[in-house]
Design a protein that fits this description.
The structure is a homodimer of 301-residue chains. Chain A has a single domain, classed as Glutamine Phosphoribosylpyrophosphate, subunit 1, domain 1. Chain A contains five helices and 15 strands. Strand 14 of chain A pairs parallel with strand 5 of chain B. Chains A, B: InterPro entries: Ntn_hydrolases_N, UCP009120_prtse.
């Protein structure tokens, strides 16, 4: 499917994308989803794409073909907002050209884009552009965008990313987010493209393609999982205490109470044996963690 | 939307469900999604539901209404597989009754179920039942099912759950999975219903409704996030080294290489200033973690 993420922090921008494309599980291939427009000292723009590959490639073709003199391009637009509008117009041009034929084949006009970067003398900006060609921008409360298969990778970003996050930590966060997604969705795959843009540098200084042999990504892949399991083991297990009352339904009660006891009306309903008292978590302090191999004690919650 | 999870481990079964229901963001309410059929000493069956509330409630009504003598019920079916088939038939009956009218209102026949439990003298079993009334069963390779908003909560289960996981650890895993989901999707909400079934007990011994005041769930909610951030800080940040070559495109190259340099054909293309050497991650050992507040050193990856 694709997974791409763009982040805007005080120190710079992070862009990360996968490269798997597919037309069904028996037709899997590789295609870059990151395109970088660099005019060193003047501007850097990075575009990430997700969705129908033919639609996103057609949009890139519109954006990179030579234009008539006087028509704006990503090299000449005076601001990042104008750049976002230009990408939106390119999508609309592809829509005008192709959507009718796609509809007749039952193919949805599915595409989305992340555009970020900086022009000389201006601030860094980051946008998400929709298939309809309009767009939204990040803010300090929401300093990132994801496109494609976004759900698996979202929790870690929400937990750690703020505008004050150092740039390399933000890159680490993006890679962990990508790792969770790779594990859970086969349509997202290596290699990855990672571009870390340093604020006011106005050139590409940090870029890598990460495949299975990349030591840093392999370290994240194995270490994050190990550490999660370790943290998991250190969190106390639930402790159960005898309950005064475990809610049971009797006939006539609200039918959506959870426990439906057997009654003679349901057929043979002789209760067997001594019932053990039911237990509940309701008013319980978490227990101390196990003293086995799991790690240092955590203070009671 | 709903989030429910069912797990089958050697020691027993874990069932966890939320209670939020909505018909749009301005119409939010609470409804249990867990129903328990208990004949102590004979059988325990637990049903979790997700999807269109009227459809799932209609299915439960079919399953809990008195039947003609000789017709099977969840109290009398001779096996868990027969129980799963019975739930499937109940869904199909609701479909026969309601789907035409729903379709005329443009409402999808959206529902899914998790059914698990044990009959005396038999093994524990766990199934996921579809809107079409057919179903699948867990295996040792895949010992759990999720229905509803499943993606946010899936990674932690995949990382820690196996059939050998102790029962209380499995419950903890389910709660952490639910916590991630609650944070990321407003249509999933407290309180939660948690039922932990001990293998061969043939009765409900451990059940709790967890709301904001439950200390254990609050401990998980705050501790898991803190520990994740701590682990995140302990993982080394990426280190960048000078690259022999950062791929750049020149005209005529594959148009989907990531870096598109400016050329005179694109308008003024005078390169400004001394380019800093580009850096890449390609062959780099991760650095030692920062010596600040983050925690013990991790050995280089």
């Amino acid at each position: 499917m694709t997974y791409c993420v763009g982040m805007l922090v005080d120190e710079g921008l992070v862009f990360l994308s996968d490269t798997r494309t597919n037309a069904g599980v028996d037709h899997v291939s590789t295609s870059r989803k990151m395109v970088v427009f660099e005019d060193p000292g003047e501007r850097v723009l990075v575009l990430l794409v997700a969705g129908n590959l033919a639609i996103t490639q057609a949009t890139l073709q519109v954006l990179t073909e030579p234009q008539e003199a006087g028509r704006p391009t990503l090299w000449t637009v005076p601001s990042m907002v104008e750049a976002a509008r230009l990408v939106g117009e390119a999508v609309r041009e592809v829509h005008r050209r192709d959507s009718e034929a796609l509809t007749s084949f039952g193919v949805e006009f599915n595409c989305s884009f992340i555009l970020g970067g900086q022009l000389r003398g201006q601030s860094m900006r980051l946008f998400q552009i929709y298939a309809a060609g309009n767009f939204i921008e990040t803010s300090s409360m929401n300093p990132y965008f994801q496109i494609g298969e976004s759900k698996y990778g979202k929790p870690i970003i929400d937990r750690v990313l703020t505008p004050a996050t150092p740039l390399d930590e933000a890159a680490k966060c993006a890679l962990i987010s990508m790792d969770s997604t790779l594990r859970s969705n086969l349509s997202v795959g290596l290699p990855l493209d990672l571009l870390v843009y340093e604020c006011d540098s106005l050139r590409v200084t940090r870029y890598a393609t990460l495949d299975q042999s990349n030591e840093y990504f392999q370290m994240i892949h194995s270490t994050w999982g190990e550490r999660l399991r370790q943290v998991f083991g250190e969190i106390p297990d639930p402790v159960w205490s005898d309950a005064a009352h475990v809610p049971r339904r009797s006939r006539g009660d609200d039918p959506v109470l959870p426990i439906v006891p057997r009654s003679p009306l349901d057929g043979h309903g002789v209760q067997g044996g001594q019932a053990r008292p039911a237990q509940t978590l309701a008013q319980v302090q978490p227990s101390a963690p196990h003293a086995d191999s799991r790690g240092p004690d955590t203070p009671p919650g």
